[in-house]
Amino acid sequence: MADSSVRKRKVEQPSDKEDLDILTDSSQTQNEPAPATTKDETPEFMKEALKDLPPKWKNWWVRGLFTIVMFGFFAILIYIGPIGFMFSVILCQVKCFHEIITIGHQVYKSYDLPWFRTLSWYFLICSNYFFYGETLAVHFSTLIQSEVYLTFLAKYHRMISYMGYLVGFMLFVLSLVKKRYRLQFFMFGWTHVTLLIIVTQSHLLIQNMLEGLVWLIVPVSMVICNDIMAYICGFFFGRTPLIKLSPKKTWEGFIGGAIFTVIFGWFLSGFLSQFPYLTCPSDISTSLNIDIDCKPLSIFVLQEYDVPLFIRVLLKMISMDRATINIYPFQLHCLSISIFSSSIAPFGGFFASGFKRAFKIKDFGDIIPGHGGLMDRFDCQYLMATFVNVYLSTFIKIPSPQKILPIIAAMNPKDQLALFEDLKTYLTNKGLVGKG
Protein backbone atom coordinates (compact mmCIF):
# COMPACT_ATOMS: atom_id res chain seq x y z
CA MET A 1 0.00 0.00 0.00
CA ALA A 2 2.80 2.42 0.88
CA ASP A 3 4.60 1.72 -2.39
CA SER A 4 1.44 2.26 -4.42
CA SER A 5 0.72 5.57 -2.69
CA VAL A 6 4.27 6.75 -3.39
CA ARG A 7 3.90 5.80 -7.07
CA LYS A 8 0.58 7.63 -7.18
CA ARG A 9 2.12 10.81 -5.76
CA LYS A 10 4.95 10.64 -8.30
CA VAL A 11 2.49 10.45 -11.16
CA GLU A 12 0.63 13.48 -9.87
CA GLN A 13 3.78 15.63 -9.59
CA PRO A 14 4.36 18.15 -12.41
CA SER A 15 6.68 16.93 -15.14
CA ASP A 16 9.53 19.40 -15.60
CA LYS A 17 10.96 17.53 -18.57
CA GLU A 18 8.19 18.58 -20.95
CA ASP A 19 8.80 22.23 -20.14
CA LEU A 20 12.58 21.85 -20.39
CA ASP A 21 12.27 20.31 -23.84
CA ILE A 22 10.80 23.59 -25.03
CA LEU A 23 13.81 25.54 -23.80
CA THR A 24 16.58 23.29 -25.14
CA ASP A 25 17.62 21.54 -28.32
CA SER A 26 18.62 18.39 -26.46
CA SER A 27 15.69 16.32 -27.66
CA GLN A 28 13.05 16.18 -30.37
CA THR A 29 9.49 16.55 -29.06
CA GLN A 30 6.14 16.83 -30.65
CA ASN A 31 6.16 20.54 -29.80
CA GLU A 32 9.30 21.44 -31.76
CA PRO A 33 8.78 22.68 -35.30
CA ALA A 34 9.83 20.17 -37.89
CA PRO A 35 13.07 20.83 -39.73
CA ALA A 36 12.64 23.21 -42.62
CA THR A 37 12.24 21.56 -45.99
CA THR A 38 13.41 23.02 -49.27
CA LYS A 39 10.55 24.05 -51.52
CA ASP A 40 10.13 25.95 -54.74
CA GLU A 41 9.32 29.55 -53.77
CA THR A 42 9.00 30.78 -57.34
CA PRO A 43 5.73 32.74 -57.82
CA GLU A 44 3.26 31.20 -60.27
CA PHE A 45 3.65 33.98 -62.84
CA MET A 46 7.43 33.37 -62.99
CA LYS A 47 7.50 29.57 -63.04
CA GLU A 48 7.11 29.21 -66.79
CA ALA A 49 9.91 31.69 -67.55
CA LEU A 50 12.31 30.18 -65.01
CA LYS A 51 11.44 26.49 -65.33
CA ASP A 52 14.70 25.53 -67.09
CA LEU A 53 17.01 27.32 -64.66
CA PRO A 54 18.77 25.60 -61.73
CA PRO A 55 17.45 26.50 -58.24
CA LYS A 56 20.34 28.89 -57.57
CA TRP A 57 19.51 31.06 -60.58
CA LYS A 58 15.76 30.81 -59.98
CA ASN A 59 16.30 32.31 -56.54
CA TRP A 60 18.52 35.00 -58.08
CA TRP A 61 15.80 36.22 -60.45
CA VAL A 62 13.01 35.99 -57.86
CA ARG A 63 15.01 37.95 -55.31
CA GLY A 64 16.03 40.47 -57.95
CA LEU A 65 12.48 41.13 -59.15
CA PHE A 66 11.01 41.59 -55.69
CA THR A 67 13.96 43.75 -54.64
CA ILE A 68 12.99 46.12 -57.45
CA VAL A 69 9.37 46.03 -56.27
CA MET A 70 10.46 46.96 -52.74
CA PHE A 71 12.56 49.81 -54.14
CA GLY A 72 9.40 51.06 -55.85
CA PHE A 73 7.45 51.07 -52.57
CA PHE A 74 10.35 52.84 -50.85
CA ALA A 75 10.35 55.56 -53.52
CA ILE A 76 6.58 56.05 -53.11
CA LEU A 77 7.01 56.47 -49.34
CA ILE A 78 9.70 59.12 -49.90
CA TYR A 79 7.27 60.98 -52.13
CA ILE A 80 4.43 60.74 -49.58
CA GLY A 81 6.68 61.99 -46.78
CA PRO A 82 6.74 61.50 -42.98
CA ILE A 83 3.11 60.40 -42.59
CA GLY A 84 3.60 57.60 -45.12
CA PHE A 85 6.76 56.45 -43.38
CA MET A 86 5.09 56.51 -39.97
CA PHE A 87 2.25 54.26 -41.03
CA SER A 88 4.52 51.93 -43.01
CA VAL A 89 6.92 51.52 -40.06
CA ILE A 90 4.01 50.73 -37.71
CA LEU A 91 2.53 48.21 -40.18
CA CYS A 92 5.92 46.53 -40.64
CA GLN A 93 6.38 46.46 -36.87
CA VAL A 94 3.02 44.72 -36.37
CA LYS A 95 3.80 42.15 -39.07
CA CYS A 96 7.28 41.42 -37.66
CA PHE A 97 5.78 41.01 -34.19
CA HIS A 98 3.17 38.63 -35.63
CA GLU A 99 5.85 36.51 -37.32
CA ILE A 100 7.85 36.05 -34.10
CA ILE A 101 4.88 35.56 -31.79
CA THR A 102 3.41 32.96 -34.16
CA ILE A 103 6.53 30.80 -33.71
CA GLY A 104 6.03 30.83 -29.94
CA HIS A 105 2.30 30.25 -30.25
CA GLN A 106 2.87 27.03 -32.20
CA VAL A 107 4.59 25.67 -29.09
CA TYR A 108 2.23 27.21 -26.58
CA LYS A 109 -1.07 26.18 -28.17
CA SER A 110 -0.22 22.47 -28.01
CA TYR A 111 -0.69 22.66 -24.24
CA ASP A 112 -4.10 24.30 -24.54
CA LEU A 113 -3.06 27.20 -22.28
CA PRO A 114 -5.08 30.44 -22.24
CA TRP A 115 -4.51 34.01 -23.35
CA PHE A 116 -0.93 33.89 -24.70
CA ARG A 117 -1.72 35.42 -28.08
CA THR A 118 -4.32 37.84 -26.66
CA LEU A 119 -1.95 39.11 -23.97
CA SER A 120 0.91 39.37 -26.47
CA TRP A 121 -1.11 41.71 -28.68
CA TYR A 122 -2.35 43.62 -25.64
CA PHE A 123 1.25 44.27 -24.51
CA LEU A 124 2.09 45.37 -28.07
CA ILE A 125 -0.69 47.98 -27.92
CA CYS A 126 0.48 49.19 -24.48
CA SER A 127 4.09 49.47 -25.66
CA ASN A 128 3.14 51.41 -28.76
CA TYR A 129 0.91 53.74 -26.77
CA PHE A 130 3.78 54.50 -24.40
CA PHE A 131 6.56 55.00 -26.95
CA TYR A 132 4.65 56.82 -29.67
CA GLY A 133 2.81 58.96 -27.13
CA GLU A 134 6.18 60.22 -25.90
CA THR A 135 7.27 61.02 -29.45
CA LEU A 136 4.04 62.80 -30.35
CA ALA A 137 4.23 64.94 -27.22
CA VAL A 138 7.66 66.24 -28.27
CA HIS A 139 7.35 66.64 -32.02
CA PHE A 140 3.67 67.52 -32.37
CA SER A 141 3.38 69.91 -29.43
CA THR A 142 1.57 72.58 -31.49
CA LEU A 143 -1.29 70.20 -32.28
CA ILE A 144 -1.47 68.82 -28.73
CA GLN A 145 -1.74 72.26 -27.15
CA SER A 146 -4.65 73.14 -29.42
CA GLU A 147 -6.86 70.34 -28.06
CA VAL A 148 -7.89 70.03 -24.42
CA TYR A 149 -8.21 66.23 -24.41
CA LEU A 150 -4.80 65.83 -26.07
CA THR A 151 -3.24 68.07 -23.44
CA PHE A 152 -4.77 65.85 -20.74
CA LEU A 153 -3.42 62.68 -22.40
CA ALA A 154 0.03 64.24 -22.77
CA LYS A 155 0.15 65.38 -19.14
CA TYR A 156 -0.81 61.99 -17.68
CA HIS A 157 0.67 59.88 -20.47
CA ARG A 158 3.10 57.85 -18.39
CA MET A 159 0.59 57.08 -15.67
CA ILE A 160 -2.00 55.96 -18.24
CA SER A 161 0.63 53.78 -19.94
CA TYR A 162 1.71 52.23 -16.65
CA MET A 163 -1.85 51.47 -15.55
CA GLY A 164 -2.53 49.85 -18.92
CA TYR A 165 0.53 47.63 -18.52
CA LEU A 166 -0.53 46.66 -14.99
CA VAL A 167 -3.85 45.40 -16.34
CA GLY A 168 -2.00 43.05 -18.68
CA PHE A 169 0.35 41.98 -15.90
CA MET A 170 -2.55 41.03 -13.63
CA LEU A 171 -4.32 39.17 -16.44
CA PHE A 172 -1.15 37.13 -17.01
CA VAL A 173 -0.98 36.18 -13.32
CA LEU A 174 -4.66 35.15 -13.41
CA SER A 175 -3.99 32.99 -16.48
CA LEU A 176 -1.32 30.83 -14.79
CA VAL A 177 -2.13 27.12 -14.96
CA LYS A 178 -0.87 24.53 -12.47
CA LYS A 179 1.97 22.33 -13.78
CA ARG A 180 2.69 24.79 -16.61
CA TYR A 181 4.11 27.75 -14.69
CA ARG A 182 7.61 27.45 -16.17
CA LEU A 183 6.37 27.32 -19.74
CA GLN A 184 4.04 30.28 -19.20
CA PHE A 185 6.79 32.42 -17.68
CA PHE A 186 9.03 31.43 -20.58
CA MET A 187 6.41 32.68 -23.05
CA PHE A 188 5.90 35.84 -20.96
CA GLY A 189 9.61 36.53 -21.36
CA TRP A 190 9.38 35.65 -25.07
CA THR A 191 6.74 38.35 -25.56
CA HIS A 192 8.70 41.02 -23.70
CA VAL A 193 11.99 40.33 -25.49
CA THR A 194 10.10 40.53 -28.79
CA LEU A 195 8.61 43.87 -27.72
CA LEU A 196 12.08 45.12 -26.78
CA ILE A 197 13.51 44.18 -30.17
CA ILE A 198 10.57 45.18 -32.39
CA VAL A 199 8.70 48.06 -30.74
CA THR A 200 11.67 49.90 -29.26
CA GLN A 201 13.64 49.82 -32.50
CA SER A 202 10.69 50.86 -34.70
CA HIS A 203 10.05 53.73 -32.28
CA LEU A 204 13.67 54.85 -32.67
CA LEU A 205 13.31 54.55 -36.45
CA ILE A 206 10.43 57.05 -36.39
CA GLN A 207 12.30 59.32 -33.98
CA ASN A 208 15.18 59.43 -36.44
CA MET A 209 12.82 60.24 -39.30
CA LEU A 210 11.25 63.16 -37.40
CA GLU A 211 14.69 64.77 -37.21
CA GLY A 212 14.64 64.80 -41.02
CA LEU A 213 13.71 62.19 -43.60
CA VAL A 214 17.36 61.91 -44.59
CA TRP A 215 18.14 60.28 -41.20
CA LEU A 216 15.85 57.41 -42.16
CA ILE A 217 16.44 57.22 -45.91
CA VAL A 218 20.25 57.16 -45.86
CA PRO A 219 20.76 54.50 -43.11
CA VAL A 220 18.00 52.28 -44.51
CA SER A 221 19.48 52.62 -48.02
CA MET A 222 22.93 51.73 -46.71
CA VAL A 223 21.67 48.51 -45.14
CA ILE A 224 19.83 47.66 -48.36
CA CYS A 225 22.95 48.39 -50.44
CA ASN A 226 25.11 46.28 -48.12
CA ASP A 227 22.64 43.39 -48.26
CA ILE A 228 22.40 43.49 -52.06
CA MET A 229 26.12 43.93 -52.76
CA ALA A 230 27.11 41.30 -50.18
CA TYR A 231 24.69 38.89 -51.89
CA ILE A 232 26.04 39.71 -55.38
CA CYS A 233 29.72 39.54 -54.35
CA GLY A 234 29.09 36.33 -52.43
CA PHE A 235 27.08 34.84 -55.32
CA PHE A 236 29.83 35.37 -57.90
CA PHE A 237 33.05 35.39 -55.86
CA GLY A 238 32.20 33.78 -52.50
CA ARG A 239 34.53 30.97 -51.47
CA THR A 240 35.42 31.46 -47.79
CA PRO A 241 32.66 30.81 -45.19
CA LEU A 242 32.07 33.76 -42.85
CA ILE A 243 30.03 32.40 -39.94
CA LYS A 244 28.54 29.00 -39.11
CA LEU A 245 25.12 30.50 -38.30
CA SER A 246 24.76 31.50 -41.97
CA PRO A 247 26.60 28.97 -44.13
CA LYS A 248 25.85 30.91 -47.33
CA LYS A 249 27.57 34.07 -46.05
CA THR A 250 31.18 34.48 -47.20
CA TRP A 251 34.07 36.79 -46.41
CA GLU A 252 34.17 37.86 -50.06
CA GLY A 253 30.53 38.96 -49.86
CA PHE A 254 31.04 40.65 -46.48
CA ILE A 255 34.07 42.68 -47.62
CA GLY A 256 32.62 43.47 -51.05
CA GLY A 257 29.37 44.66 -49.50
CA ALA A 258 31.29 46.90 -47.06
CA ILE A 259 33.32 48.59 -49.81
CA PHE A 260 30.28 49.31 -51.98
CA THR A 261 28.29 50.53 -48.97
CA VAL A 262 30.90 53.13 -47.97
CA ILE A 263 31.12 54.45 -51.54
CA PHE A 264 27.34 54.43 -51.99
CA GLY A 265 26.75 56.16 -48.65
CA TRP A 266 29.22 58.94 -49.47
CA PHE A 267 27.60 59.90 -52.76
CA LEU A 268 24.00 59.36 -51.62
CA SER A 269 24.43 61.54 -48.51
CA GLY A 270 26.02 64.30 -50.59
CA PHE A 271 23.19 64.24 -53.13
CA LEU A 272 20.33 64.20 -50.58
CA SER A 273 21.86 67.01 -48.48
CA GLN A 274 20.71 69.48 -51.16
CA PHE A 275 16.98 69.00 -50.49
CA PRO A 276 15.32 70.79 -47.52
CA TYR A 277 12.35 68.44 -47.94
CA LEU A 278 14.62 65.64 -46.72
CA THR A 279 16.85 67.47 -44.21
CA CYS A 280 14.30 69.53 -42.25
CA PRO A 281 12.77 68.19 -39.01
CA SER A 282 9.07 67.34 -39.20
CA ASP A 283 6.57 69.36 -37.16
CA ILE A 284 2.80 69.05 -37.41
CA SER A 285 0.47 72.05 -37.32
CA THR A 286 -3.03 72.36 -35.90
CA SER A 287 -4.39 71.77 -39.41
CA LEU A 288 -2.58 68.38 -39.46
CA ASN A 289 -0.15 69.56 -42.15
CA ILE A 290 3.45 68.42 -41.90
CA ASP A 291 5.84 71.38 -42.04
CA ILE A 292 9.09 70.42 -43.79
CA ASP A 293 10.65 73.81 -44.45
CA CYS A 294 13.53 75.24 -42.49
CA LYS A 295 16.87 76.91 -42.58
CA PRO A 296 19.35 74.06 -43.26
CA LEU A 297 21.48 72.93 -40.35
CA SER A 298 25.20 73.56 -40.75
CA ILE A 299 25.84 69.88 -41.50
CA PHE A 300 23.75 70.24 -44.68
CA VAL A 301 25.64 73.31 -45.96
CA LEU A 302 28.71 72.94 -48.20
CA GLN A 303 31.94 73.64 -46.37
CA GLU A 304 35.55 73.77 -47.44
CA TYR A 305 37.95 71.20 -45.99
CA ASP A 306 41.67 70.68 -46.37
CA VAL A 307 42.47 67.49 -48.26
CA PRO A 308 44.59 65.10 -46.12
CA LEU A 309 48.15 64.69 -47.38
CA PHE A 310 47.89 60.97 -48.19
CA ILE A 311 44.80 61.65 -50.32
CA ARG A 312 46.59 64.50 -52.15
CA VAL A 313 49.37 62.06 -53.00
CA LEU A 314 46.84 59.66 -54.49
CA LEU A 315 45.16 62.48 -56.43
CA LYS A 316 48.52 63.61 -57.85
CA MET A 317 48.95 60.16 -59.34
CA ILE A 318 45.88 60.77 -61.50
CA SER A 319 46.70 64.45 -62.16
CA MET A 320 44.01 65.80 -59.81
CA ASP A 321 46.05 67.68 -57.21
CA ARG A 322 43.71 69.60 -54.88
CA ALA A 323 44.50 71.26 -51.57
CA THR A 324 40.88 71.79 -50.53
CA ILE A 325 37.50 70.22 -51.27
CA ASN A 326 33.91 71.35 -50.78
CA ILE A 327 31.73 68.71 -49.17
CA TYR A 328 28.72 68.49 -46.87
CA PRO A 329 29.62 67.70 -43.22
CA PHE A 330 26.73 65.23 -43.34
CA GLN A 331 28.89 63.11 -45.68
CA LEU A 332 31.56 62.81 -42.97
CA HIS A 333 28.94 61.74 -40.44
CA CYS A 334 27.68 59.17 -42.93
CA LEU A 335 31.13 57.61 -43.12
CA SER A 336 30.61 56.43 -39.54
CA ILE A 337 27.09 55.27 -40.33
CA SER A 338 28.19 53.38 -43.45
CA ILE A 339 30.99 51.62 -41.55
CA PHE A 340 28.49 50.53 -38.91
CA SER A 341 25.95 49.39 -41.50
CA SER A 342 28.52 47.22 -43.26
CA SER A 343 30.37 45.78 -40.26
CA ILE A 344 28.04 45.70 -37.22
CA ALA A 345 24.48 45.81 -38.60
CA PRO A 346 24.91 42.43 -40.39
CA PHE A 347 25.12 40.84 -36.95
CA GLY A 348 21.41 41.57 -36.64
CA GLY A 349 21.00 39.17 -39.55
CA PHE A 350 23.30 36.62 -37.92
CA PHE A 351 21.26 36.91 -34.72
CA ALA A 352 18.08 36.23 -36.71
CA SER A 353 19.78 33.26 -38.40
CA GLY A 354 20.62 31.78 -35.02
CA PHE A 355 17.04 32.28 -33.87
CA LYS A 356 15.67 30.49 -36.95
CA ARG A 357 18.13 27.62 -36.52
CA ALA A 358 17.07 27.24 -32.90
CA PHE A 359 13.50 26.63 -34.08
CA LYS A 360 14.46 24.84 -37.31
CA ILE A 361 12.70 27.23 -39.67
CA LYS A 362 14.03 28.63 -42.93
CA ASP A 363 12.35 32.05 -42.80
CA PHE A 364 10.13 34.02 -40.44
CA GLY A 365 7.41 34.07 -43.09
CA ASP A 366 6.73 33.93 -46.82
CA ILE A 367 5.14 37.30 -47.53
CA ILE A 368 7.98 38.35 -49.88
CA PRO A 369 8.91 35.67 -52.46
CA GLY A 370 12.65 34.98 -52.48
CA HIS A 371 13.17 36.98 -49.29
CA GLY A 372 10.94 35.34 -46.66
CA GLY A 373 9.03 37.36 -44.09
CA LEU A 374 9.31 41.03 -43.22
CA MET A 375 11.46 40.16 -40.22
CA ASP A 376 13.94 38.56 -42.63
CA ARG A 377 14.30 41.97 -44.31
CA PHE A 378 14.28 44.13 -41.19
CA ASP A 379 16.61 42.16 -38.91
CA CYS A 380 19.53 44.50 -39.69
CA GLN A 381 17.39 47.64 -39.97
CA TYR A 382 16.35 47.51 -36.34
CA LEU A 383 19.94 47.37 -35.12
CA MET A 384 20.78 50.23 -37.46
CA ALA A 385 17.93 52.37 -36.10
CA THR A 386 19.37 52.19 -32.58
CA PHE A 387 22.85 53.24 -33.71
CA VAL A 388 21.56 56.21 -35.73
CA ASN A 389 19.42 57.36 -32.80
CA VAL A 390 22.38 57.17 -30.41
CA TYR A 391 24.58 58.94 -32.99
CA LEU A 392 22.02 61.71 -33.41
CA SER A 393 21.67 62.21 -29.67
CA THR A 394 25.45 62.26 -29.15
CA PHE A 395 26.74 64.32 -32.08
CA ILE A 396 23.86 66.14 -33.81
CA LYS A 397 20.78 67.00 -31.77
CA ILE A 398 20.58 70.12 -29.62
CA PRO A 399 17.66 71.37 -27.51
CA SER A 400 14.95 73.08 -29.57
CA PRO A 401 11.83 75.14 -28.75
CA GLN A 402 9.64 72.28 -30.00
CA LYS A 403 11.08 69.95 -27.36
CA ILE A 404 11.10 72.43 -24.48
CA LEU A 405 7.67 73.99 -25.04
CA PRO A 406 5.59 70.95 -23.87
CA ILE A 407 7.55 70.95 -20.59
CA ILE A 408 6.91 74.66 -20.09
CA ALA A 409 3.23 74.24 -20.95
CA ALA A 410 2.88 71.64 -18.17
CA MET A 411 4.17 74.10 -15.54
CA ASN A 412 1.80 76.20 -13.46
CA PRO A 413 1.35 79.87 -14.52
CA LYS A 414 3.43 81.22 -11.61
CA ASP A 415 6.45 79.11 -12.59
CA GLN A 416 5.98 80.02 -16.25
CA LEU A 417 6.13 83.75 -15.40
CA ALA A 418 9.22 83.20 -13.23
CA LEU A 419 10.88 81.33 -16.10
CA PHE A 420 9.95 84.15 -18.47
CA GLU A 421 11.57 86.74 -16.22
CA ASP A 422 14.71 84.64 -15.81
CA LEU A 423 14.97 84.13 -19.57
CA LYS A 424 14.41 87.84 -20.19
CA THR A 425 17.19 88.73 -17.74
CA TYR A 426 19.55 86.20 -19.33
CA LEU A 427 18.92 87.49 -22.87
CA THR A 428 19.30 91.10 -21.72
CA ASN A 429 22.66 90.34 -20.13
CA LYS A 430 23.74 88.62 -23.34
CA GLY A 431 22.76 91.74 -25.29
CA LEU A 432 20.24 89.84 -27.40
CA VAL A 433 17.27 91.99 -26.28
CA GLY A 434 17.09 95.61 -25.17
CA LYS A 435 16.63 96.69 -21.57
CA GLY A 436 13.23 97.85 -20.38
Explained architecture:
The chain has 436 residues and is mainly alpha-helical. Helix content is 69%, strand content 5%. It is built from 19 helices and 6 strands. It has helices spanning 2-12, 16-23, 44-50, 55-80, 82-108, 116-139, 141-145, 148-155, 157-175, 181-210, 214-237, 251-272, 276-279, 309-317, 329-343, 346-358, 374-396, 401-409, 413-429, and strands spanning 241-243, 246-250, 283-284, 290-291, 303-306, 324-327. A two-stranded antiparallel ribbon has the order 1-2. Helix 5 runs antiparallel to helix 6, helix 11 (214-237) packs antiparallel against helix 12 and helix 11 packs across helix 15. The radius of gyration is 27 Å and the shape is flat. The termini are far apart. The model is unreliable at 1-17 and 22-38 (pLDDT under 50).
In terms of topology, how is this protein built?
Elements: H1 2-12, H2 16-23, H3 44-50, H4 55-80, H5 82-108, H6 116-139, H7 141-145, H8 148-155, H9 157-175, H10 181-210, H11 214-237, E1 241-243, E2 246-250, H12 251-272, H13 276-279, E3 283-284, E4 290-291, E5 303-306, H14 309-317, E6 324-327, H15 329-343, H16 346-358, H17 374-396, H18 401-409, H19 413-429
Antiparallel strand pairs: 1-2, 3-4, 5-6
